[in-house]
Every structure is written in structure tokens, then in C-alpha cells.
Predict the structure.
Amino acid sequence: MDFFEKAYAIEQDNRDELKHFRKQFAIDDPNLIYLDGNSLGMLPKATPERIQKVIHNEWGRKLIRSWNEGWYERSQEIAAKLAPLIGAKPHEVIMADSTSVNLFKLAYAVLHLQTGKKAIVSDELNFPSDIYLLQGLVKLFGDKHELRLARSHNNMGVSKNEIVEKLKDDTALLTLSHVAFKSSFMYDMKEITDLAHEKGAMVLWDLSHSAGAVPVKLNECNVDLAIGCTYKYLNGGPGSIAFLYVREDLQEKLVSPIWGWFGQKDPFNFRLDYEPADGIQRFLAGTPPVLSLSAIEPSLDLMNEAGIDNLRDKSLTQSRYLIELCKHFLEPLGFSLGSPVKDRERGSHVSIRHPEAYRICQALIDPKTGGKSVIPDFREPDNIRLGITPIYTSYMDIYEAVMQIKTIAEQKLYNRFSLQKGRVT
């Protein structure tokens, strides 16, 4: 059977051992192909029912009694379901705040602990919000620290040598995105963590683009700290609660800069002097958002049932398929690959580049250009990101999306759309 024919995609879908999970998500429009789960995951069908139960039963009927009937422990209970997906012990993970707030808490704690070390190391492919936060920390500490960014020479990945060049004996913290948000470049977590530890630096990984799609091994890699969001591959919903990880031997050594009552040893004693809680709970601050915590649970249950290694196997097979289709059909039309080819260096989305990337994205989304509506996303300056979320993405989704891109490029249908960019791309 011809690899580049529609029949091949149909056959692969028929053979897919994870295909039944797709039915667990709200895919209501048969003319929509969603390839943006790396930005916002789809809605699990069980989530509305779960939320309604929390609203009508736990909140509406039981009211404040629910704090003694499950709400108080929910941050840790949900974290325990996330822990296997990121290779951590349940008592090393907590659901809390946003990714940015968690980065602030942990990075600040490291700089406070690592006295005498002045450098923070990251890379220029990191998500800008992480960089902004690190810049803010430098100011907050009175410009006594230096932020060093490792360079990318191809706008796709960062070599180990570039990281080594920035890591010095004065490095307090190395913080990187495990998977780069534009290119999908993925670091060797163990190798980079070991390099930082050799210099006496602590390591903080942002797992926002890998948790739920890549088998992360935090304990196996001896990672110090990690953060991440839950609204991408973990399907927790827009703006859903984030998570943080602190290796168990570091929990008593690090001091969170945000002292709140849920991080207090006994919050309902209402003492005026703060005493941090034991273990990971000391990194909480304010009251946890119960609705958001509850919304993520159905997806975590599905992902643990599917198995993260199985999801990764499918993701790699699908991304290889997508890359080959792009080479065959799209490279002759002026597209180029913006993601690594090697499996070990690539996360679960594939970026393709084209000078008209933004308008091609608009044409893909607009069903009036013919065919199905395809939702990818655009990242400056010329990246079309095609997200593969293996728990619900089909091979036909991939095949039809590439065919739609091909049609738009061949017929220059993107010329119908403005170059003026929307607020969200």
C-alpha cells in the first residue's frame, strides 16, 4: 500500500490500539480537524459531568462541608494521578497556581538558597514568559544576578556545547523548557541535568510542552525541580491549574517566597506566625481552585489508562508520518521543516515553515476555502505548529490536514486573508 495514499491513513487508524480513546473526547464537528492540542487540549466527555457534580452536589448541596469531604486534599490527590506521567513520587508533586507563579516560587527559592552564586542560565528558545520572569527576578534581587541565554544557531535546537559554555561554577540555576514551544526540540533531560549538577547548579525544567505527551523521568534523571501547565496535552481546560515538583530531599531546604495559609502547617489554627507545612504542601499559597482541580481529573484518568509509553509510541509514529507527508507534498511548494527529524530530539508537535505561514493558518481555519476546517496555530515569524495529541489525533486528521495545506499553497488561497494578525495566533 502506498504510504502517501489516503488508504494508508485509514489502515493505520484501523490498526491503532488507542483509537477507542478518541471517543472519550468531545469531537462534535465532523468537518473539523483539531491539531492544536499542544496549545489547548480538547474537552474530555466526562469533564462536564464531573464539574456538574462538583457544582451541584459538592458546592450546591454540601456547601462548605465539602472542605472536610475531599476538597482540602484534592490538590494532592490530583497530583498523585499526575505523578506517574512525569516520573515522580506522589509526595513530590502538588497542583498549584499558574506555571509562571510556580516558576517564580521555585526559582526564587533556589536563588535564596544558592548564596554566592550569581548566574541563571536558560536558552533563547525558552517560552518568553519564563524569560520575563527570570529577568524580573534579577531585578528583584537588586541586579546581583546575571541571566545567561544559550544560543540556538538554527532557531530549532540548542546544542549541549552551548549549554556547557554558559554553565560556570557561579551558576545557581539552570532552567529550560524540556520541549521548545516553537520547534518541538527536546533536550536529553538526564544529560543536561547531570551537566548542571557537575557545576553545582540546581535544575528546573518546564514541562508544559512535554507532560502528557512525552514520558518524563524526573526521579530517574535526578531532577531537582519542575513546573508545568495542564491545559495542553493534559486537557485540563483553558487556564487550568498548574503543577510543581520538588525532589523529596530538597523540600525542607527550599523556602517559598509566597507564604499563604494553605502552605501553613495548620492553616485552621490561624496563628499569626507562619510555620511552613511539612513536605510538598509548603509550596502552596492561597486557596486551591476546586473547580479547576476537578476538571483535570477525567483526562488524567484516561491518560493513565492509556499509558504514557503507549501514547509516546503513537505520537512518534504519527509525527514521522506527518514529517514524511510534508517532505513529499509540501517541500516542493516552498515549505521547510521547523522541527528535529530525530525522534529523541522531538516532542509531540511538528512545525513547518513558510513565508506565508500566518495567512495559511487563517485559510486552514476558514472552511470557506474548501474541505474541512483545520486548526493549527502560528508562531512568529513563519511557523505553522501541527500538534499531535495521540490520545485523540487520528492518522486521517494528519493526512487530510496536509492535503488541505497543499491545496491552499497550490491555489494561493491565503491571498484572500489579511496580513493583519489577531491578538491570539
